Amino acid sequence: MSENATRQQILIVDDEEVNRTILSLMFDADYDIVEAANGMEAIEAIEKCENENIALILLDVIMPVVDGFGVLDYMKEKELLDEIPVILITSMTPQESEEKAYEYGIADVMHKPFESNIIRRRANNIIELYQSKQNLEIRLKEREATIREQEKAIRENNEFMIDALGSVVEFRSIETGDHVKRIKYLTRILLKYLAKYFPKYDMTPVKIDQIARASALHDIGKIGIPDSILLKPGKLTPEEFEIMKTHTTIGCEILESFKSPYMDEFYQYCYEICRHHHERNDGKGYPDHLKGDEIPISAQIVSIADVYEALVSERVYKSAYSNAEAYAMILNGECGQFSDDVIECFKLAKEDFFNLVEVINMFNFT
User: Fold this and answer.
1) pLDDT score recorded for residue 292
2) Are 107 and 130 in contact (CB under 8 A)?
3) What whole-number distance in Å separates Cα of residue 187 and Cα of residue 302?
4) Which pLDDT score, from 0 to 100, does residue 168 have?
5) Closest Cα to residue 320, out of 330, 308, 328, 336?
6) Rounded to an integer, what distance in angstroms lies between the CA atom of residue 281 and that of residue 300?
7) 335, 283, 288, 287: which is closest to 309 by C-alpha?
8) Which of 121, 118, 139, 59 lies closest to 91 in space, CA to CA?
9) Which of 77, 189, 243, 340 counts the highest number of beta carbons within 10 A?
């Protein structure tokens, strides 16, 4: 150890000065020694010292003012026993002291009269063990922090790519690309109400986040729809509408082309939403004519968010409806049919939806 390095401390607690002296001489070459003649002095010493600088406490049991177990009670209350190793040095019989002492989680118990070589060897082994444990915990925390930062970076990159991919269609449709962001906000709002009031769906924060992110890709299949149909300012003919409906399956084909064996729940949500966000509760939607609970809840939620966002936004073929008009149209069944649970969430989210649209309009995001 260099001369400039801060030496660690050993706290020796014993009411007999001769014992403190003997123990001090064993360790003063490698450690700074702090002495306490009773438990109260020991507690005061612990409070004054930086806890991380105390390598070991050698603690007598029978002392005036506060005994050794009183010191252990204090350390237990302050959650210090996992950080600072304690060797209890006692003249009590093993049966009297050891069982009670080990219940505190101390490192070791030694009995008086003690052998200098034995106590030095045990003390050094315990110090080394505790410091190795603490160093390992520090490295693990640092590793966890690094992994969290890496995961955050990967997540942000993925989020960017998903949003960019989802926005391709919106730019192609001569829109701003913010449609996918608004769908994510609306989807997340609905999912939070679903999680709170409909626990049967087991909608955890992780699932909410995954579904909200997956919603950005709901219309990715429109990239395969001809401009003459996608950008048509008027009503589509029946033939054109049939072609438009294929954007659901085209989107799934695009997703499948990127699928890998390591794809997880997130991919499943992307696929469900892309394929089924135009299904109807009565089975009259497309492409698979699913009905009721056959429609994945992820697709149901994104479906109503998509309908609402389309109603309150200007399109090449229509002007924007007001919040109140869009709300009434959905409840009146003019824009599809949704399950009772989804409609209830939509009602609960009314003010949130209205406020979100007002904020968007206020800052001219569209």
Assistant:
1) 95
2) yes
3) 6
4) 66
5) 308
6) 9
7) 335
8) 59
9) 189
**What is the Cα–Cα distance from 288 to 191, expressed in whole angstroms?**
24
Cα separations in angstroms, 91 against 61, 95, 105, 112, 235: 8, 11, 20, 5, 97
Cα(205)–Cα(188) distance, rounded to whole angstroms?
A: 10
> What is the rounded CA–CA span in Å between residue 158 and residue 152?
10
Q: What is the DSSP string of 295-318?
A: S-HHHHHHHHHHHHHHHHS-BTTB
Q: What is the pLDDT at residue 172?
A: 60
How many whole angstroms from its chain centre is CA 309?
29
Residue ranges in 63-204 assigned as alpha helix (H): 68-77, 94-103, 116-172, 179-197
A 10 A CB-CB count for 322 gives 12
What per-residue confidence (pLDDT) applies to 119?
87
**Sequence-distant (≥ 6) Cβ neighbours of residue 201 within 8 angstroms:** 194, 195, 297, 341
Residue keyed to tokens 């160093």: 135
* Cβ burial 277-288 (10 Å sphere, 16+ → b, else e): bbbbbeeebbee
pLDDT by 10-residue block (mean), the chain, 366 residues: 66 93 92 94 88 86 92 93 90 68 87 82 90 86 84 68 64 61 93 97 94 91 90 90 95 84 80 96 96 97 95 82 94 93 97 86 55
The identity of residue 357, as a single letter, is V
- Calculate the CA dihedral of residues 40, 43, 47, 52 and round it to 10 degrees: 160
pLDDT of residue 49: 78
Q: How far apart are CA 68 and CA 98, in angstroms?
A: 13
Compute the radius of gyration of the chain from its Cα atoms. 34
The pLDDT of residue 137:
84
d(CA 24, CA 166): 71
Q: Please state, in angstroms and rounded to a whole number, the distance separating the CA atoms of residues 271 and 292.
A: 18
The alpha carbon of 143 is separated from its chain's Cα centroid by a whole number of angstroms, namely 16
* Strands annotated E in the chain: 9-13, 32-36, 54-60, 86-90, 108-111
Strands 54-60 and 86-90: parallel
Quick one: DSSP state of residue 176?
-
